[in-house]
Amino acid sequence: MALFAERGFEKTRIVDIARRAGVSHGTVGLYFPTKEALLRGVIERMAEPQMDEVERLIDAFEGSTAELLETLGLFWWTHCQEESVGAIVRVVEAELGNFPELAETYRARVYDPVIRLFVRIVERGVARGEYRCDDPAPHAELGFGGLGYVLDWNEGLGRVLNRPIEARRYIRIWAHALACGLASGADE
Amino acid sequence: MALFAERGFEKTRIVDIARRAGVSHGTVGLYFPTKEALLRGVIERMAEPQMDEVERLIDAFEGSTAELLETLGLFWWTHCQEESVGAIVRVVEAELGNFPELAETYRARVYDPVIRLFVRIVERGVARGEYRCDDPAPHAELGFGGLGYVLDWNEGLGRVLNRPIEARRYIRIWAHALACGLASGADE
Amino acid sequence: MALFAERGFEKTRIVDIARRAGVSHGTVGLYFPTKEALLRGVIERMAEPQMDEVERLIDAFEGSTAELLETLGLFWWTHCQEESVGAIVRVVEAELGNFPELAETYRARVYDPVIRLFVRIVERGVARGEYRCDDPAPHAELGFGGLGYVLDWNEGLGRVLNRPIEARRYIRIWAHALACGLASGADE
Amino acid sequence: MALFAERGFEKTRIVDIARRAGVSHGTVGLYFPTKEALLRGVIERMAEPQMDEVERLIDAFEGSTAELLETLGLFWWTHCQEESVGAIVRVVEAELGNFPELAETYRARVYDPVIRLFVRIVERGVARGEYRCDDPAPHAELGFGGLGYVLDWNEGLGRVLNRPIEARRYIRIWAHALACGLASGADE
DNA sequence: TATGAATGAGTGTTCATTCAT
DNA sequence: GATGAATGAACACTCATTCAT
Q: Of A9, C41, C186, D93, which residue is least crowded by CB atoms under 10 Å?
């Protein structure tokens, strides 16, 4: 994972992966018939966003949607930071054209569950009477995107250009913007 | 551009580019000494988001920040759609590790100018008395990110997973969320 | 070695070397990262003119400088003949401009040691009272050159033009000429 | 000539020759159908060692063979120095395997005439009663080689290794060694 | 007569994959 | 199971040669 994240798919040599794993490159071939299988393996082992834990957190949370989003955003940001999720996602995106199956894995393990959580948050806000919302989907997508962006940027262009985003503040604004967007009823 | 967008940097063979251009692969070498130069050429030719035009549009606009953002978002979205900007940016990101100079080109020609426009929008809102804002940067980054996300997604994972975002509605929500975030004073 | 000697550096294809070695061209790449490394390998393996043996021979020799030179000349001539040293040196010279490091290798492993031996011979002659000589260097260079010439010629132009030098007689004259030159005190 | 001498045959690009000649590379093709023809042209125009002049010099010379050789050696050395003959000869040698015709040209225009001059010098010495010599050939070859060596070395390995031979002294020694060799009667 | 755009064969180098030990 | 030597397909890059203008 670390190597794919650092160098991309094509530039990562199997020998290096093997060396890093402390085995010979021949041994890698015994467990993963092709390089693509290796990448698939990485994605499948990719740290899931700990859905259950987050789900409980949402249900138990007492404050406003904005506060919940900020809490959650920070949690995920920390989590993904540790696991260099951003870099892996960039690799997956880059290889989409070549290995479409990867996309499916990514959707099933990451995208769909996270979107579902965002939907749950929106519904929770509606239930609490914060706002009305008939179609949570675009809000969920906006949430996912805004959060994904900061992860992506800080590990990618932001790092190279030396223009890191101060994540804590960004996430606060993101949370408020999302919540406000819900409250403004813009989707009607 | 089309080929890099479709297949990524490594998987795009120079012969294919040449064939598509109706020349032999040797001819490509006469104009671009290396494959990297070819990619840099693409970025440099990557239609700049018509900064001047947008600038004038911002200054002349009469409505609220939310309305301005929505108008602008739709404009850029249409524009980038036509030029498959999303895909190219993904390629650039993927090759950052290998060709760091690309990042600089991207920053100078795309990122910095667009961020500057977002800052201008925020300042315009402040001048109009819509809200107070001491530090427009994170708002600008949030704006850039939210818009970049939909372009990226719809040309990348969204397409492959057959889960395109309905852009018009997304952009409306994005615009309102951004404006609300500004109004909520979350950065203080 | 044989192929470089026969065809020169540029015209020798790695595939041919590989085929001659009974392996595939990829295999060559496992042992020599570049073609230049291959040539350097050849030089390094280029049988050193058995310096120690020659040194002992010089010290133990009883006769005159002319006789010693003739003995030595024949010894080296035979030795280099067997290893097609002449042709390799020509290749090295031809590639000097492109790979200057080769020169260093050649100097350290061939030129300097041999010149040192010639100096030793001159000093031995002085010690024996055959002649006086304050600066052995040009004599050593003349000796090296005269001997190098016959090797070079007989494997290069001489062979192609079908004008081989009869080495035994040439070396006898070379030895006497050198010794006479020393005796004549021409460097004073 | 300068370019071939500097870079060798393969590494010299026709475009560079053309640029140096102030024409376009296409134009070169009009006068020399192939690159090899270009090299042959260079050799044919290669400054001949001014045979006639030297011949007269030999016949008119009054002093000993050693003095004549020293005078001649210096003359040629100066002449070849100016025309970078050494480098050209190295190129020819390097390309012998690929273009054997070149060798023939070289023999006819350079080698044979010069050897003939050396033979003439030896015969002159015999006529003057300096020594007896039944077979001048090996002496001529030794002379040619010793002189060729210093030219070759100083423009090739000697330059790269920063070990130039002080030509004036070398040539004095060479002349005396040759003359002594003749006087010693080593070829009998 | 000269140009320079275009061609395409040729080759060094990389590296995923295989397989005998 | 594990190794690492060997393979060979793939591809970027160079540049002599051609030819329409």
A: C41
